[in-house]
Design goal:
This protein has 1074 residues and is an alpha/beta fold. Helices cover 46% and strands 11% of the residues.
């Protein structure tokens, strides 16, 4: 092998392979790299940037290279790799590339947003249009029913119609199809069909297209767009204005397109319009990892790249392989190939593709196991994780990758029983976890009297322990009261469980203890309804506190289950806090509707952040794309889960599915040849191809150890699912493979009953429960309490008297500590509630506000009075929103809810000298800062910190990765830098505390930075010691709980809204001459 440039060797950490060097050193012309899993494609792209800057002819400076990728995770990874590659030092001690000369790295939607910001006005698009979040899109689409009658739907349910219109809208946007095209095609088909079933589907689709047209009109009226509109409008700009195309081609003489297999048809058209015609474009992707088809990603784009992006002489672009895998053992790669090789040659540019293992990694370990049911699978998997952890050293080196979120629950229970710390990712998955389910049950019970299932969960849970007989008596009473109450159509009008709570004395057969507990629940429900009128996150946090989740987490902070619950609850509240309606407030019913939609959709969170906490990572396969772990478990290889042959929607049966004739990738889709059954079979087989790719991605995340498993029985299905074909194929491979460990399970007979039947019912506590838990053990077979009573009755001396003096002293000290704690808790329980109501959740700026002036906090949070929202407040909110919008195209496509920033009192009022500062000045200083060109890891990230009975909430403006590793926490300030402010650091220090306690960062890995946009200054500091900060904050919170709200006049009085009626503040201002 010829000697390669030392800069490339340093960039890759070793000499490039022949494949890598060919991809890095290609001339400036279009070409595509087919990069297999674990082939180091991101490092190759970074090395390509270095090669263009130092060795290409002609040279291309890094700042003139455009790098586009698919997700936030990929953007972050590519930015980091390129930045480190460009930090090389030459022989003369100088940087080979000027500092700050970096490529533009964006995701595809971020690039479209940039085009619209610069040139949108040329097609009449105003730059201030907001991006709709999914929940806002559902809210806006609900208004379509006020404009379209949907006559073909017998009973048009709003939820169903909204889901279908939005599904059709997404597909139409992905394939650049107008509503009129859908209507025209389907009206033509309707005139030719003789099938009543087909005609109904066609009429439904025509109605949905009419709804899509109305939805577009509503977006224009509300001056909002969605991500599909971003691409569509950007494409319109470049098609109608050739000079814009010329500008981008001149600005970026080299373009790198990462994860190209995940682009949709509209994105590919935008890129071809800009960078076709022999422009030097490098596309990188792997058809075997095309797993986002359900989001519109088209495999056709990668397969067709050589023909579409031709060279200057008109010949097809070159296709280069990267087939050496630097991640996994050879046995793992063989197992993955056993699944992927069944995909037909037409959907793989290289049908004979086989990843070559890196010899240093050996074979690795592969286990392929089958089980009777999902509980047995989860328990065996958890046992295997305990063993695996002894080998890898860290829990976070282990991942469990699931095809569906519904697999989380049995895993959660098995992990908790074994003390395995776990981090469950994704909103839909979080909704299935016990601590979240308990909080949501209370929320549903408060929000709606019809939430009888939620009330049943609460009442039979550990807090009230209402047994089945008492619950059945309440239900029977409700049913009896419903008799005779009938609507106009004769249907029964139900009396809900909530209403029965108002008639407890009239319910026959109800035990006395049951009646008492039900009355207590009724009182608690009334209290929570009052609290639910406030902010939803505050309400949910208070529910968690009342039902003991927060107390349990912090009382048992060292327990693994408590840490897992804390992570799950924090992540859930973080996502809830991001939900914001299009209009009005985020009320509890609205938030619950948004959560229901997320849960129903089984939405995969492709941009979900994964923390650094030392916990097993449990996530969907789609979330795991681009990640790698030492040990990977892939459960659920079962028919209907993985693979799921129904994953590909049939447009002949589902009206919300776009006609294949209108899709830009119709060439690789099954064609309807007149036979419905054959077409349906072809669709199912096509879906299996997509499922193979999903399974392949999961298997190739493993480095040294792979476990794949499935079971016959899941949930309470009448019939067994049976293990899936992928597991069968892995078993067949394993029987011939060297060292593979396989454990088969027989397929059940049709007559075999479901072993999971009644499992959930058996978990319901019996009534009445035992007065005390069973305390029998090997030493005391009849229980230690009974043994103690017997010993006392016999006059036996206390065993304590036999303890040595030092052990007795330690015992007495422990007893004293616990009695002191019990006394303290009892005093707090007896504390009067006649004083002022204290909010259980206080914001970071509320804590700082109290530290500055308790009286101002009182008038702001305890007995809130109207506050003046001056220009500075509006300017602060606007600049935060503007910066967030700029970052959002790069930061996330899911967390797109607008939120209010954390603004201190000084930020809200502003100094007199600040009020002449224009938005243009603030924006200019931001754009001139180093942060304008950096990709944030997180934008507006919210958190909750527990402090006794209080919860402190906050929202971090931005978090960036430091060049040396770790996080830089950034807060934007619109005012000038204060000369001397003793409390100035507390805001960022609390943010740092959240990074340490919620997201597992170390203090030394954090830098806290204020950016003063008025002057362009940045001020950074190392965070305060966590224990010292907690002590200071706790001191303020204890004073709040004690209702100490005396004013502390000072400079803050100048901007205080309450100074006109505050005697102390007025006296200070008079003395100061203000």
């Amino acid at each position: 092998m010829n000697e390669r440039p030392k800069e490339i060797v340093e960039c890759l950490g070793g000499p490039p392979t022949d494949e890598q060097w060919a991809a890095i050193s290609m001339p400036l012309e279009p070409y595509v790299i087919v990069a297999g899993a674990g082939s180091g494609k991101t490092s190759v792209m970074a090395a390509r940037v270095v090669h263009l800057a130092l060795h290409a002819e002609p040279r291309v400076a890094p700042g003139n290279v455009l790098c586009l990728t698919f997700t936030n995770k990929a953007t972050e990874n590519l930015t980091r790799k390129v930045r480190r590659a460009l930090e090389m030092i030459g022989d003369d001690g100088r940087r080979l590339v000027a500092e700050g000369d970096e490529p533009t790295v964006l995701n595809y939607h971020g690039f479209a947003a940039e085009i619209l910001r610069r040139h949108g006005m040329r097609i009449g698009h105003e730059a201030d249009r907001r991006i709709l979040s999914p929940s806002q899109a559902r809210e806006l689409c609900g208004k379509v029913l006020d404009r379209v009658a949907f006559p073909s739907f017998e009973i048009p349910s709003q939820d169903s119609i909204v889901k279908q219109v939005l599904a059709l809208a997404e597909q139409a946007a992905n394939h650049l199809v107008e509503p009129e095209q859908i209507i025209a095609l389907n009206e033509g088909l309707l005139g030719r069909t003789t099938s009543r079933v087909d005609a109904e589907v066609l009429r439904h689709r025509i109605d949905l297209a009419q709804g899509l047209r109305a939805y577009r009109d509503l977006k224009d009226e509300y001056r909002v767009i969605d991500f599909g509109d971003q691409i569509r409008l950007a494409l319109r700009v470049v098609r109608e204005h050739p000079d814009v195309v010329a500008e981008y081609r001149e600005r970026f003489p080299a373009v790198l397109l990462d994860e190209y297999q995940d682009t949709n048809v509209a994105q590919a058209d935008l890129l071809h319009t800009l960078f076709g015609e022999a422009h030097p474009v490098t596309a990188v992707g792997d058809p075997d990892q095309n797993i986002y088809a359900w989001r519109g990603a088209s495999l056709h784009n990668l397969l067709d790249f050589p023909n579409r992006f031709r060279r200057a002489d008109g010949t097809a672009a070159t296709r280069l392989p990267l087939y050496t895998n630097f991640r996994s053992g050879s046995a793992i790669l063989e197992a993955a190939d056993a699944v992927i090789r069944e995909i037909p040659a037409a959907q793989r540019p290289d049908p004979d593709k086989l990843l070559a293992p890196w010899a240093e990694h050996g074979r690795g370990r592969v286990e392929v196991r089958g089980f009777r049911d999902e509980l047995a699978e989860a328990e065996a998997l958890a046992d295997a994780i305990v063993v695996a952890r002894q080998d890898v050293g860290r829990w976070s080196d282990i991942a469990v990758l699931c095809r569906k979120h519904r697999l989380y629950r049995p895993l959660h229970d098995a992990f908790e029983a074994r003390g395995i710390p776990a981090e469950f990712t994704g909103l839909a998955g979080l909704l299935d976890l016990p601590e979240v389910l308990d909080v949501l049950a209370y929320a549903r019970a408060v929000a709606s009297p019809s939430a009888s299932v939620a009330m049943g969960r609460i009442l039979t849970g550990p807090r009230y322990r209402i047994g089945i007989p008492d619950l059945a008596a309440v239900a029977a009473f409700a049913k009896e009261r419903g008799r005779g109450l009938r609507g106009e159509a004769g249907e029964r009008v139900p009396v809900f469980l909530a209403e029965s709570l108002d008639h407890l004395d009239a319910i026959p057969g109800l035990s006395g203890e049951g009646r008492t507990r039900l009355a207590a629940f009724r009182t608690e429900l009334e209290d929570l309804r009052d609290l639910a009128r406030g902010p939803v996150v505050t309400f949910l946090a208070e529910v968690a506190r009342r039902i003991g989740i927060v107390a349990e987490i912090h009382a048992d902070g060292g327990r693994v289950a408590a840490a897992t619950a804390r992570r799950s609850l924090s992540a859930f509240l973080d996502r809830v806090g991001a939900i914001a309606p299009l209009e009005g407030d985020a009320t509890l019913p609205r938030v619950l509707a948004a959560l229901d939609a997320a849960g129903d959709a089984e939405a995969d969170d492709w941009n979900v952040p994964i923390s650094d906490a030392d916990a097993v990572k449990v996530m969907t396969i789609h979330t795991a794309k681009g990640l790698e772990f030492d040990t990977v478990f892939v459960p659920g290889l079962t028919q209907g889960i993985l693979p799921n042959p129904k994953a590909q929607e049939n447009p002949m049966e589902r009206a919300s599915s776009l006609n294949f004739e209108l899709r830009g990738d119709a060439a690789i889709l099954p064609a309807f040849g007149g036979k419905k059954n054959r077409f349906k079979e072809a669709l199912a087989e096509h879906a299996i191809f997509d499922e193979r790719r999903t399974c392949y991605v999961a298997l190739t995340r493993a480095k040294r150890h792979l476990w794949a498993s499935g079971a016959n029985w899941y949930e309470t299905n009448v019939g067994a699912k049976g293990v899936g074909r992928f597991l069968e194929e892995l078993w067949a491979w394993g029987e011939e493979a060297e060292g593979a460990e396989i454990e088969r399970v027989d397929q059940p007979s049709k007559e075999e009953p479901n072993p999971l039947e009644g499992v959930r019912l058996r978990q319901v506590p019996t009534w009445p429960g035992p007065a005390r838990v069973d305390d029998a053990d090997g030493l005391f077979p009849e229980g230690w309490r009974r043994a103690a009573v017997a010993a006392a009755s016999a006059g036996q001396a206390s065993l304590l008297d036999r303890l040595p003096a030092d052990e007795r002293a330690r015992f007495d000290a422990a007893v004293t500590d616990r009695r002191t704690l019990a006394t303290h808790l009892a005093e707090r329980e007896r504390a009067t509630t006649s004083g002022p109501w204290i909010p259980p959740q206080i914001s970071v700026n509320g804590v700082i506000g109290y530290a500055r002036c308790p009286k101002s906090f009182y008038w702001t949070s305890v007995r809130p009075l109207p506050r003046f929202s001056g220009p500075a407040a509006r300017r602060g909110t606007e600049i935060h929103g503007w910066i967030e919008e700029r970052s959002r195209g790069q930061a996330s496509l899911l967390d797109e809810e607008p939120v209010e920033p954390d603004l201190t009192g000084a930020d809200l009022a502003g100094d007199v000298a600040d009020r002449g500062v224009s938005m243009e000045t603030l924006k200019r200083h931001y754009l001139e800062s180093a942060y304008a060109s950096r990709t944030p890891l997180f934008v507006e990230r919210s958190f909750l910190l527990a402090f006794g009975r209080f919860t402190v909430s906050g929202r971090i403006d931005a978090i960036y990765e430091r060049p040396e590793g770790g996080w830089e926490i950034v807060d934007w300030k619109t005012g000038k830098r204060p000369a001397d402010d003793a409390l100035g650091r507390m805001q960022l220090d609390l943010y740092a505390l959240a990074c340490m306690e919620v997201w597992g960062k170390r203090r030394e890995d954090l830098t806290a930075t204020y950016v003063y946009l008025q002057s362009g200054e940045t001020v950074s500091h190392a965070p305060d010691d966590a224990a010292a900060l907690r002590a200071r904050v706790a001191e303020h919170l204890d004073a709040i709980e004690a209702a100490r709200f005396e004013p502390t006049p000072g400079p803050q009085c100048r901007w205080c809204d309450f100074r006109r009626f505050c005697d102390a503040g007025s006296a200070f201002l008079a003395t100061a001459g203000d």
